[in-house]
Input
Amino acid sequence: MTVTNDIPAAIPAGDTLEYRAPGLIYPPTEGWARKFWLKGPALPEDSPLDGGVDADVDGDSFVISVPADDTASLTSGGYRWAELASKAGKTFTARSGEILVLPNIATADGDELLDADEKMLAAVNEQIAKRVAKDISRMGEYTRVLEREQLEQLWKLKGELEARIAAKRRGSDQRRSVRAVFQRP
Output
């Protein structure tokens, strides 16, 4: 397996996390040790990661390796990580950041693989289907108008959610917009 040159932004639960941490600050050649810590609200109490993971020295850098069995118990969500450097009773934070743990595709059910917008879109589609199928002809005029306005709001929300989901899949949070001006000849 190839060791990546830095910690990834995201990792699926149940995958091995292995990367090379630069030793520019607190280098191993000067006797510094490095330990990887992962913390978050969804970290199980009995997680092997709770005590940190010692890094291996590889020349002038460190290699952090967290086995797949240790990441398998992680629930999806955001976590904070830190690499602590220590030497002669002193400890410093060498690097820190955030990592997103994705669901384990081998064990996750379909709903776990959806993000919040996709779950909301499914709920909106369900509501639209219910309202379209509903027979509103027996209702009074006020109820019919109210029902039509709520349905229009659902259609508008559906369009917004679809645009956000499409932007995420393109790798952009920007919406594509087209402005057209029509004039008579």
User: Anything to note?
Assistant: The two ends are 65 Å apart (CA to CA). Strands lie at 10-12, 17-22, 33-39, 53-54, 56-58, 61-66, 77-87, 90-102. The mean pLDDT is 81.
